[in-house]
Amino acid sequence: MTVVLTLTCPDRPGIVAGLSEILAARECNILQSSQFFQPAPGTTRADGNGQFFLRVEFSAPATVSLEDLQKAVVGFANKFDAETHLFTDGTPIKCIVMVSKFDHCLQDIFYRTKTGVLPIEIVAVVSNHDVTRADVERLGIPFHLLKVTPETKTEQEMRLDDIVTRSGAELVVLARYMQVLSDSFSSKHFGKIINIHHSFLPAFKGAKPYHRAYDRGVKMIGATAHYVTPDLDEGPIIEQDAERVTHALNADDLVARGRAIEARVLSTAIQLHAERRVFINEHRTVVFER
Fold first, then answer.
1. What is the CB neighbour count within 10 angstroms for residue 227?
2. Of the listed 89, 135, 161, 233, which one is catalytic?
3. 233: annotated active-site residue
4. Measured distance CA(278)–CA(271) in Å, rounded
5. Where is the domain boundary, 38, 60, 88?
6. What are the distances in angstroms from CA 176 to CA 153, 256, 264, 265?
7. Which positions ≥6 away from 79 have C-beta within 8 Å?
8. What is the pLDDT of residues 267-277, one digit of tens each?
9. At 188, phi and psi to the nearest 5?
10. By residue range, what is the domain housing residue 268?
């Protein structure tokens, strides 16, 4: 059995040594380990202040269960005031994908899930339009049409929350879903909703960003995947990418290239989250690369 342990706690001596001792006593073998220290403002590592982040991947013998490991870590977590989580590596997390009319990100997620790149199980697709229903249901995935208007927004969001609860979803992905989630929903599911947007914000905020970027003669286009917060498009960033463009490309060319970047960046963010490589650190993230 391969297990992933994530840990966040105030920095102090003995954290790594104490955890290693627990694992060694149970004949576990560390396969991969990543760690990061974030000093508190105005301090250095030597001051011993700030937050410590750790992700450890290890193999455990058949005689040791996940429950055994969880019990063993409790005392350690209390000693170091640590927040710890244990996961069986490779177990897919349940995910709801939300989409409006543009389905390039959705189709990319479908493909990467089918080929095993994304360790997720898509338990539902939710949309405010009907255009993707046939593709979704062809794969045997439940499709929920929740049309949103100013009058129905609250009711539809309650239905969405019910879908999340009944499906057991651990992650909600906004794959070019063009409706803004309420502050209450965003706060309730903070750290469990990932959104994708073009990287032109705030200069090209609003409708047709690629066309507006073309009008300004941009030389770079890109995309940003981030966690959703009540502050629109300002949540902790997980992944970004960009690509150089030239004056020879028209607005439609930028749209096509932008969609490819959006799909790639969103899928990478989902993979990093599903593999427990992302730690939210106030307004930022700590991301341990693969």
1. 21
2. 233
3. yes
4. 10
5. 88
6. 18, 14, 13, 12
7. 18
8. 999 999 999 99
9. -60, -35
10. 93-287
